[in-house]
Amino acid sequence: MTRDDFTALVEQALTEVPPEFAVHLENIVVVVEDEPAPDLLRSMGLDPARDTLFGLYHGVPLPERGATFGNALPDQISIYYRPLLRACRFPQRIRREIRRTVIHEIAHYFGMDDDEIAELGY
Hints:
Elements: H1 3-15, H2 19-22, E1 28-33, H3 38-43, E2 55-58, E3 75-80, H4 81-87, H5 91-109, H6 114-119
């Protein structure tokens, strides 16, 4: 799968976010990156030789923003191209995993932790 095709699937997944959540997505950008940096993985307690990420939310979750929060750079969701391609052999599986990853990272934006997200199936 080409990177352009992959990026199109990420964009499609974003259009499928339910409107009641999408309306609250403000000052956030979603980018496709090749790989998570080894230093990033180490900072998260992961071993770059055997661990990776499919996506990552960078920012201040909505519930943690106080009344004085503002004038901030956009939050960012990174979706990692190569790890997803390595893990998913078939286009249908890649599509499903991209959607799952996008929703997972958006849930972090709304302040959910990994356990809460897993309970929802993402």
